[in-house]
Amino acid sequence: MSLKEFYKALADGKVERVEFVGALYEKAYAFIDGRKVFIGEGYPRESFTSPISPTQVMAKVRDSGVPWSTAFTYERKKKSE
What we know:
By secondary structure, the chain is an alpha+beta fold. It is 25% helix and 26% strand.
């Protein structure tokens, strides 16, 4: 699902909840009709050179009243032998 499609679904009241993944909210999933849908095309990346960021997406979700959560993944890098 593109970010534009997500915003339309959010405005139409179709989004049940949103899950943001990663310390900088690098990925997001919308739950629509009981299905977990990845928000891909157009989803912003955190960058100090861009005014658009994942936190703006989170703010839109918050302002719409849709529940949201965060999931952090901790990956360990293997030591080189």
